[in-house]
Amino acid sequence: MTVLGQHLYSTPTVALRELVQNAHDSLVRRRMEDRDWTGGGRIQISGDLAKGILRITDQGAGLTEGEIHGFLATIGVGYTRTLRERSGSEELIGLFGLGFLSAFVLAEEVILTTSSYQEPHRGWCYRSCNGQDYHVAEVAARPEVGTEVVLHLRATYQHLAGPGALARILGKYCALMPDPIYIEDASTPLNDLTPPWHREPGEPVDHPVQYRRKCMAFAERFEDTFAPLCTLPVEPTGASDAIGLLWIQDGSSYATSDNRNLSIFVRGMLLDDDARDLIPAWAGFVGGVIESKRLTPTASREDIQKDDVYHAVRSALKEALVEGLSTLSKQDDAAWRRVLTRHNEALLGAALCDPRLFSLLADSLWVPTSQGDLPVRALMNQGNLHVALGGGDGFEDMLFRALQIPVARGDRYAVMSFLREWVVQRGGRLIEVGTQHGNRQLFAEDELPQEDLDWLTAQLGDGELLIPAHFAPLDLPLVVVPDREAELKQRLEADEADERISVAALKLARAFTARIDGTTLTRLYVNLDNPAVQAVLEARRKGANTAVQAARTLWALKVLLSSRSDEGRLNLKQALAQLGQATCQLVNGTGQP
Predict the structure, then answer these.
(1) 572 and 466 in one domain?
(2) What is the pLDDT of residue 92?
(3) What's the pLDDT tens digit per position in 313-346?
(4) What are phi and psi of 71, to 5 degrees?
(5) What CATH number has the domain bearing residue 543?
(6) Residue 174 gets which letter from DSSP?
(7) What is the rounded CA–CA span in Å between residue 537 and residue 431?
């Protein structure tokens, strides 16, 4: 009883669900065994808040004295399991023979009166204060066959006798139970919500528009955080009997967003309202409700056993999502556009998880670029697609702004991998700006005489590796290019990185960076096609006095162009002074202000 009360259930209110489930199984048993019974059956729940008393009454099969001793008061033994094994019925919920004893989690005394359909003229009363010792006595037969359980609640739980608390708790757990449940003297059952996928035999099929409305209304009942944007059906497959709805949440999601929520009902009873692991990890914007008769609950019936059926349902939900999104894109343009707008970033990652999703999304998603969010095709420039690993404020931004070519933000979630897959599927060449390979595609390296190279390094350099090259635009004389791969290698190999990154992730990252040289963090490309560079070199070769001053002016331009990405590394104040001095020299030839 200590284990049951303190460790089995995550919340004591689960005991209410267990007692209602027992009442449900009793009704199922009577329908199966009492051939003369024509009643529909109902479950009545009432409370006395002032006295802290709770009553649960059913019109089910009832119990004989022998059944009270053999099943009701024996831990791990229940008639429901025996009946299921004998009949094969999938309507019965109970399995472990623990449900009734959970009443002692809430109550300091439990009184049960019952009359069995087998002996309707006799009544029995079970009474216990701890679930270990109990007393059974014969009493007058009940007015009708069935059972009433009375809980004298502990002081901590007396608030559960109020109609508001009962409706809130049982409205959650029992929403899909087939037998009507009434709170107090309500004229409408607590569980009057009919899932849209439930249809009586011979009931006509709804018009698609009407059915969509029903699905949306149902989803709104279960989605607590975001309004549903659209719904996607879940249908049984050969391996999975899951049926129900998934929905896309109408709230923007990002790479780190995980708002998955899934409620699982097994034979009409809620077992888990946070079964998010059944929904793919990439679908952080999805909620849902499913029913299953094959999923096996744990002993507390608050979770699902991770068996073959569980994995089959998980696979079925992934298929329902992929197929549902595909159907949505073809049949509901307005909803599809809203899905793309709300969840563009998350869908970039999702597209990499399934080839069908990539085919569906590749030309519809937008990626962040130096010119704002753009579809991938808008990034293409003469068959090339440029992506930068930097944060958008380095040389890449400046260089390609001058070229009027958009550059994708490869440092953002899933962008780099998405674009790599895109060029594989759609064609083109991906240039990864800031990497050694990408730089070779952007800058056509050339050679200079060693004395020219040494002189330029002395005049223009600040520790960078100076590389003479040809590149566009022609008007740009030089550009400082950090090696993004070398920067990544340096960060990962820093001692403090070991504390921030898991061992497995660090091992994978270092496997990638092992091929990177990393000795050169920054390169200075000098444009040999630029007229100013050509003039400076020509002046040096002729021994002109103005060569050094002109070169220092180019150095100052380099610092100004690099100030955003390398602020603090280069002397911006000195560069401004150098430009001022050069201007004065041009005006009066003195080199003085």
Answers:
(1) yes
(2) 47
(3) 999 999 999 999 999 999 999 999 999 999 999 9
(4) -120, -50
(5) 1.20.120
(6) T
(7) 31
Do residues 36 and 139 both lie within one domain?
yes
**Residue type for 404, please?**
Q
CA angle 36, 40, 45 (to 5 degrees): 125
> Is the predicted pLDDT of residue 301 greater than 60, yes or no?
no
Closest C-alpha to 489, from 464, 463, 515, 465: 515
Contact 53, 161 (CB under 8 A): yes
Q: Which helix (H) or strand (E) holds 480?
A: strand 478-482
What is the rounded radius of gyration, in angstroms, for the C-alpha atoms of the chain? 36
Q: How far is CA 147 from CA 49, 221, 531, in A?
A: 22, 32, 99
Question: Does 354 fall in a domain?
Answer: no
Q: String of b and e for 61-74 (b: at least 16 CB within 10 Å)? A: bbbbbebbeebbbe
- DSSP for 420-440, please give it: HHHHHHH--EEEEETSHHHHH
- For 85, the token pair is 């094994």
* Interatomic CA distance for residues 321 and 319, integer angstroms: 5
List phi, psi (to 5°) of 154: -65, 155
CB 533 within 8 A of CB 475: no
- Residue-wise pLDDT for 402-425, tens only, equals 778 888 988 888 999 999 999 999
Please tell me the predicted confidence (pLDDT) of residue 592.
Answer: 44
3-state DSSP of 499-561? HHCCHHHHHHHHHHHCCCCCCCCEEEEEECCCHHHHHHHHHHHHCCCHHHHHHHHHHHHHHHH
3-state helix, strand, coil in the chain (%, to 5): 40, 20, 40
Average pLDDT over residues 68-75: 73
Contacts of 499 (CB under 8 A, 6+ apart): none
Q: Which two tokens stand for residue 83?
A: 């009946």
Structure tokens at 448: 């200079």
**How far is the C-alpha of 79 from the C-alpha of 68, rounded, in Å?**
10
Nearest-angstrom CA–CA distance, 324 and 344: 17
pLDDT digits (tens, 9 = 90+) for 104-113: 888 999 999 9
The half-sphere exposure of 481 on its side-chain side, counting CA atoms within 13 A, is 31
Q: Is residue 509 part of a domain?
A: no
Residues 159 and 297 grouped into a single domain: no
Q: Which residues of 118-143 are buried (b: 16+ CB within 10 A; e: fewer)?
A: eeeebbbbbebeebeebebeeeebbe
Separation of CA 366 from chain center: 20
Residues 397 and 529 in one domain: no
> Which of 155, 134, 126 lies closest to 64, judged by CA?
126
What's this model's pTM, rounded to 2 decimal places? 0.73
